[in-house]
Amino acid sequence: MGKRTIIPFGPQHPVLPEPVHLDLVIEDEKVVEAIPSIGFIHRGLEKLVEKKEYPEMVYVIERICGICSFGHGWGYCAAAEGAMGVEIPDRAEFLRTIWHELSRVHSHLLWLGLLADGFGFESLFNHCWRVRETILDIFEETTGGRVIFSVCKVGGVRKDVDADTLKRIADTLENIKAEIKTLCDVFLEDVSVKNRLVGVGYLSKQDAIDLCTVGPMARASGINQDLRYNGHGKYLEVGFTPCVEEQGDCYARCKVRIDEIFESIGIIQRCIEAIPEGAIDVPVKGKFTGEFITRMEQPRGEAVYYAKAFDPGKETNYLERMRVRTPTNMNIPAMVKTLQGCDLADVPMLVLTIDPCISCTER
Amino acid sequence: MAVFKMAKVVLNRLFQKPATLMYPVVPREWTERTRGHIDIDVDQCIKCGICARKCPTNAITVDRDASTWEIQRMQCIQCGCCAEVCPKKCLSMAPEYTTPNTIKVVDKFDIPVKEKPAPKAAPADGAASGEDGLKCNAEECVYCGLCAKTCPVGAITVDRGEKKWEVDKDACVQCGACVDKCPKKCLSL
After folding, report:
1. Measured between CA atoms, how close is B48 to chain A, in angstroms?
2. CA distance B97 to chain A (A)
3. Which burial class, exposed, middle or buried, applies to B24 when counting CB atoms under 10 A from its CB (0-12, 13-18, 19+)?
4. Partner residue facing B1 (CB), from A52, A182, A189
5. What whole-number percentage of chain A has pLDDT above 90?
6. Which residue from A3, A71, B78, B187 could staple onto A298, CB 3.0 to 4.6 Å apart?
7. Strand pairing of A156-157 and A152-153?
């Protein structure tokens, strides 16, 4: 038995996109234990509900994270709309679904790039991000922002997208599909990539259930759990198939995300076909009332949004409490579990395949 | 199992244009909706200060005494909230990004001083302005007239002798400047 050593990993590390710190207890080349610690980018955004009126709070909530910013904005608006009993128009819900799925495509392409960078495949990383630019250009054209969109508001959306632009988006996505397919083939079939992914970081279905994993991490271990089934957005109307894999290793997690890219493109195209004409928002006036909890499927998994007004009779334009539970929060225990017994060289793969977003986790 | 999967992608890209632009030699093309920076039409501004109050990052300062409107460019997050709430629509989102900088830039605009429009009607009975908009709680009001002095559009009339408070609903832009100024906190929007 070798001597035990502790290697600090992060918060600043070449393979880490975000600051998480791991104390890796090493015996020879094997990781015996991993002790995670976070707290490097806590910004106290939830506390800001006391300072910002509820319509302006959307801008703050969107800035929880740069990658799933639209999802956070939507989650908050859905919670506020639920609390106040606001029904939003169909067209707004369709537009939200389209933007959210575009976010998922860009998030997964970004993640694929980071994964390629993690195992040292620089050119693959650059190509993934090149394709992602097309999605960002669509965002800029339709919302005005490339990363933070500021289009979601309590009561609907701020900007409409005309039929020509929607058709162009559908065509663009059809065109880049072939390009994404070529890149995804490298991830799924290239021998050097497979050597880094297949069989690495196995998480059994039972462990995934016990450790409360969410999102692609859970789906890669055979759990068919997708919050898009719960009725938010227009997913049930246009239909979709959740992407589930059984193997539970890094390769399965990669495959789930790749399949989701194509599934999302399909959802967007079906939404564009089905989108009705009509208003894009309803006026929401008065003080914030009620209490509501809502769940959303973000690119990284299930996120929970909770909004609460002050007691009846004392309502103001401010919320008493706003809470977001983010998917990475739930996937960290599973990451720690998979790290036990892995090779030191595989640590970056395991950290990356949960798609960590520490900005979301700490807020 | 394939070995040279990436070669196809690389060879294909060898004969195509680079995906990046030669910044800053080649200028970037902005879309119509790009949120680049906030512009102000100073002639339309009434210094109501709604933009400053609604700004999520407190990047805007409106100084009514000095008649200036200033924005901290680095603090601004280009959300467009100010342009949306501006009652005179004198704020707008321009597509070009501001020039990259190493210092924190504050842009200051002088607002031309305009004569306040004269109040339209003589004070009438009743202390409330109606169901929507600005309201005054007549029981708490001391008729000090600070609201009338603060109002950027001269929509409020206060007659201390007659104990009358009135707002011209058509002129009121609901900026809330009077609500902030009221010493008795008897005004509400």
Report:
1. 18
2. 11
3. exposed
4. A189
5. 15
6. A71
7. antiparallel
